[in-house]
Specification:
Blueprint (H helix, E strand, L loop, with lengths): L33 H14 L1 H15 L6 H25 L3 E8 L7 E6 L5 E8 L4 H12 L2 H4 L5 E6 L12 E7 L6 H8 L6 H9 L1 H14 L1 H9 L7 H13 L1 H10 L4 H22 L5 H19 L23 H12 L12 E3 L6 E3 L7
Antiparallel strand pairs: 1-2, 2-3, 3-5, 4-5, 6-7
Helix pairs in contact: 7-11, 8-13, 9-13, 10-12, 11-12, 12-13
Length: 384
């Protein structure tokens, strides 16, 4: 067996299979054949694994998990928190705010810091201190609210004021910060946070919610069946029986929707999500076999193709979040039809039609308006 010469990463960085950016596969001293690299890179693109990896690496960097000097990192965050709290007190005096209480901070060292305060109208409001680079989204939000329908207004926060610290007469060496005063919102309840932050394929709570919500599960089956409509019709036409295509398609639909009832007990068990997912996929195959048997279809190849395609689409849908992190490049997941989340999805879709792009939507950047229960996009720093 010939021994391949090791090459340096720099020797392959301009390989045409990379596309516009590195495919993250090569490491110094490791060879990946060009055709193999291209196949893997294409798979990464199709399954959006590149974005997932970036997200994981970003979170590791943001939280300092990889640091060899964890104690030093902790000290840096503690010192930063103390410094920002002192700034918040000074800002509150300049804005006639009282009762300053720390609420939360960004995972990034130099990210936003949030405080609960009371304004001069005795309202409980939020004070955010963050980089001036993220100020534009907050400045524009009131204009967007005034020009938008109620569908959008209900899911955007009320901003009372946006000021640079310099405009308030506060000068912080080596930093450009702004102060945002906005309506008080609450963190999402645990289950709702999971539905928004994690796909059914990654969260047992989200998966159980999908199986127990008839509308959501029906929407999932309808979506997949529409993609496989021609394959379904081909199987029906291969039947030796005289059957109506629409009726048999409806029979398959009802058969597959009934799966959620079969999984109700399983979803409530203490079994992990992988077992539930495997059982779901197996039930789909069983129901397709049962449907084909009723049609006296003997073409096992067509039957196998339908089962494989249905399973692949199902796995893909189970990997989709209810609220996409980047709305312009991703579609809402099946759980987006669940009550409470659905109106937020409608608002995001309407914003997209107006070419207004909410970015970085995740569980911490979506909060709940306590008076009405409406979900609100709370972080507007990357709101283009």
């Amino acid at each position: 067996m010939p021994i391949k010469k090791k090459i340096k990463k720099s020797q392959v960085k301009n390989d045409p299979t990379y596309g516009s950016e590195p495919d993250m596969l090569d490491q110094p001293g490791v060879i990946v054949e060009p055709d193999v690299r291209k196949k893997i890179a294409d798979y990464f693109k199709k399954m959006m694994l590149r974005e997932t990896i970036r997200s994981i690496l970003y979170e590791i960097e943001a939280t300092g998990v990889q640091s060899q000097d964890a104690e030093y990192k902790i000290n840096m965050y503690d010192e930063r928190k103390k410094a920002m709290s002192n700034i918040a007190i000074v800002v509150s005096k300049a804005l006639n705010l009282i009762d300053v209480r720390f609420l939360a901070r960004s995972k990034r060292l130099y990210g936003a810091y949030t405080y609960a305060v009371v304004d001069n109208n005795y309202r409980n409001v939020i004070l955010k201190i963050q980089s001036i680079d993220e100020m534009e989204g907050y400045k524009n939000i009131q204009k967007i609210r005034n020009e938008s329908s109620e569908v959008i207004k209900n899911h955007l926060p009320i901003i009372f004021s946006v000021n640079t610290l310099r405009s308030l007469g506060i000068h912080i060496p080596d930093e450009s910060l702004c102060a945002i005063v906005m309506e008080r919102l609450e963190e999402l309840p645990g289950n709702l946070y999971d539905l928004i932050s994690s796909s059914p394929g990654r969260s047992k709570i989200s998966l159980n919610a999908l199986l127990n919500d008839r509308d959501a599960f029906t929407s999932l089956i309808d979506k997949i069946m529409s993609k496989l409509n021609q394959s379904i019709i081909n199987i029906i036409k291969s039947s030796p029986l005289q059957v109506d295509t629409n009726i048999q398609t409806s029979v398959l639909r009802r058969t597959l929707i009934s799966i959620s009832r079969s999984l109700d007990a399983l979803a409530d068990d203490n079994k992990d999500k992988l077992n539930i997912t495997s059982s779901l996929l197996q039930l789909v195959n069983d129901k397709i076999d049962l449907w084909c048997s009723g049609l006296n279809v003997t073409d096992s190849a067509m039957q196998s193709i339908l089962k494989i395609d249905f399973s692949n689409f199902l796995k893909f849908e189970l990997s989709s979040r209810a609220v996409p992190r980047e709305p312009m490049s991703q579609n809402p997941g099946t759980l987006g039809v669940i009550k409470g989340i659905k109106p937020l999805i409608a608002a995001i879709e309407e914003l997209k039609h107006k070419n207004i792009v909410p970015q970085d939507l995740h569980g911490n950047n979506i909060m709940i308006r306590p008076d009405t229960g409406e979900l609100v996009i709370s972080d507007l720093g990357h709101f283009n």
